[in-house]
Each structure stands twice: as structure tokens, then as C-alpha cells.
């Protein structure tokens, strides 16, 4: 069998009569004397007369136009898989490639398969209100943000629904008992937590079993936490919460007015504009990292209270001072979701 090696394939000009050797990598396992690497390519050619070593690569399957077709198709439908893209290319041009080749071609132009970011859905009204709020507070100074108490609610369950947990396992052991995390469909028992942060301090963590109603929010959160905390930090503080239904009830608004508590409304569906949202992420990570993890509600309650008190205050400090950047990013995105 004759094999043609020309300048286009090898980058080396072969003279007539020159002796070349084609090495079989299945027979020769030692290191290549030129590259000090194994002879792992079936396209290794050695010119014994000139003592040069040439590696011949396989010809590229796709053309530049087909590479651009893959990129355009992937950008038009970003949820298509590499197998889908290879099939579309085959039906459009007749060129058959594997999904690994499609993945490599996209990676060469900076397109990689990644999980999409999950954000709350925003309507045009939400974007308009977020943009107006960000423009109003974009020029606030750190001294003004230092007077704002950010508050919010969250939930915590015995079984975390986070998919950030990784394990070390060998191939073929996916369903071994030590590699399985058992989890109920709805996360098991859970509690509601409320907390507030301000520059240099934080409120006590309130743990609520059951639904947070407007009456509970007024009698417990406002009376036992917000009012006492406002008296401790000073009357110049501003209370910020979201537009959840229990927070917007008439009895809550009347209570805030009677206690002379200044309120700052946060736009709806705007977790990126409330610094306390990142504190909940810190809290959930710290609770999930406990060994052994909580197995009942009393243990979960103790873990939440302990980890809440041990969150470093300098991290909360950095979150509050990042509010100008958050407002700037929201303005730049015209009120859409941001990476904050």
C-alpha cells in the first residue's frame, strides 16, 4: 500500500530518492528520541538520512465555513447538544462528524457547554422599577448605605437541594451506596429564617416553623427585632425589606408608622439588589458543611443559630459596600438580571 506524503500534509519537502520510515506504534513502545514522548501516533514519519522527525496529523474534517455554521447554529439555539449540532451539520452539508468534534470546534471559538444561570422571571414592569430604583440610589455614599438595615426571609431544610456537592469515585461505581446522597422529593422538613444586617452589626436570627403571616411579621419581626435593633443603632437607620405579601399588609405599614421606622422599599424580584441574599448563601453553605449534618429540626435550629453568629462581619461589610456596584450593573443591564 502506497501512502503519499507531500509538503501540504507534512510541512516537509521530500526529495526524490530519500528514504523514510513509517513506524508502527503498536510495536514500538519506547520514547521518541526527538520529543522524548511515546510513539503514540500512527502518522509518525522519520527521515533517516537527514535525521529529522515529522508528525503527520490527520486531515481536518470540517472546513472553515462548516465551523462557522456550527457556531451560528449553536448561538441561535443555545440549548442544542453537540450531537444535535453534528446531525444538523450532516443534513446541511453532508459532512459527518462526531459530537466530540463538534464540541472541540465550538471550544476553539470560546463556546463551551455550561449550566444556565437560574434567575427569577422579570416582566417589563419589574425591569422598569428596578432601573428606577437603581438610578435613585446609584450615587449614594458609603455613609448612606451604612444606615440601611437589609432584611429578608429564607428557608432551610434538613436535606439541601444544592447540586454543588461533588464526590470522588471511580468509573462504574455511580450507584454504590457510598456514592449516593439520599434526598426526599421536596427536601424534607424545613424552617423559615429571618435576619437583618447593617454595617458593623446584625440582628438575631429568627427561626419560624410554618408560614410567615403579616400578623407574625408585625408582632415578632417588627416588635421584637426591628424596633429594638433600631433603638440600639440609632434613629437614623433605614429599614429595607422586599415586597412580599406579609410585608405589604396594612397592619405592617401602620406598625412602621407608629414606631417611626423609616422604610425603604426594594423592587420586587430583586435578590441581586439586597445584600442579605448572599448572607443566606453563606449560611446554607456553612450548615451543609457541618459534620455530621443536622438530622432533625432541633439540630437544624442549633446549627443555624451557631453559624449565623459565626459569619465573619467583614464579609457582611463587603456585601453592603458593594451596593453602588450593584446599582451600576442594574443600570447597565437596563433593569434585567445581573451577576451580583
Automatic annotation (TrEMBL):
One of the GO BP terms on file: DNA integration
InterPro entries with a match to the protein in the record: RNaseH_sf, Tc1-like_DDE_dom, Transposase_5, Transposase_Tc1-like
GO molecular function, one term: DNA binding
Domain Transposase Tc1-like: 67-137
Highest taxon above the source species: Eukaryota
Domain annotation Tc1-like transposase DDE: ranges: 148-291
The name this protein goes by in its record: Transposable element Tcb1 transposase
Amino acid at each position: 500500500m502506497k501512502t503519499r506524503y507531500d509538503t501540504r500534509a507534512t510541512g516537509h519537502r521530500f526529495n526524490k530518492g530519500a528514504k523514510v520510515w513509517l513506524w508502527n506504534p503498536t510495536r514500538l513502545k519506547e520514547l521518541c528520541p526527538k520529543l522524548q514522548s511515546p510513539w503514540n501516533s500512527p502518522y509518525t514519519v522519520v527521515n533517516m538520512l537527514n535525521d529529522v522527525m515529522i508528525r503527520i496529523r490527520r486531515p481536518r474534517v470540517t472546513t472553515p465555513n462548516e465551523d462557522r455554521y456550527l457556531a451560528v447554529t449553536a448561538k441561535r439555539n443555545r440549548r442544542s447538544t453537540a450531537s444535535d449540532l453534528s446531525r444538523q451539520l450532516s443534513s446541511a452539508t453532508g459532512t459527518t462528524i462526531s459530537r466530540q468534534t463538534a464540541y472541540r470546534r465550538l471550544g476553539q471559538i470560546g463556546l463551551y457547554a455550561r449550566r444556565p444561570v437560574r434567575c427569577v422571571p422579570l416582566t417589563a414592569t419589574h425591569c422598569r422599577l428596578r432601573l428606577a430604583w437603581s438610578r435613585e440610589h446609584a450615587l449614594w455614599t458609603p455613609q448612606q448605605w451604612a444606615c440601611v438595615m437589609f432584611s429578608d426571609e429564607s428557608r432551610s431544610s434538613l436535606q439541601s437541594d444544592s447540586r454543588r456537592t461533588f464526590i470522588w469515585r471511580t468509573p462504574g461505581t455511580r450507584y454504590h451506596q457510598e456514592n449516593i446522597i439520599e434526598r426526599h422529593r421536596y427536601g424534607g422538613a424545613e424552617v423559615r429564617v429571618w435576619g437583618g444586617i447593617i454595617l458593623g452589626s446584625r440582628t438575631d436570627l429568627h427561626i419560624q416553623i410554618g408560614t410567615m403571616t403579616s400578623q407574625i411579621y408585625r408582632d415578632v419581626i417588627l416588635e421584637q427585632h426591628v424596633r429594638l435593633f433600631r433603638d440600639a443603632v440609632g434613629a437614623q437607620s433605614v429599614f429595607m425589606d422586599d415586597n412580599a405579601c406579609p410585608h405589604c399588609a396594612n397592619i405592617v405599614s401602620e406598625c412602621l408608622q407608629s414606631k417611626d421606622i423609616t422604610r425603604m422599599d426594594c423592587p420586587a424580584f430583586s435578590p441581586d439588589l439586597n445584600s442579605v441574599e448572599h448572607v443566606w448563601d453563606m449560611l446554607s453553605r456553612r450548615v451543609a458543611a457541618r459534620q455530621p449534618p443536622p438530622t432533625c429540626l432541633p439540630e437544624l435550629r442549633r446549627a443555624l443559630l451557631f453559624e449565623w453568629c459565626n459569619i465573619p462581619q467583614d464579609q457582611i461589610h463587603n456585601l453592603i459596600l458593594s451596593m453602588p456596584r450593584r446599582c451600576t450593573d442594574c443600570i447597565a443591564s437596563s433593569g434585567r438580571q445581573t451577576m451580583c
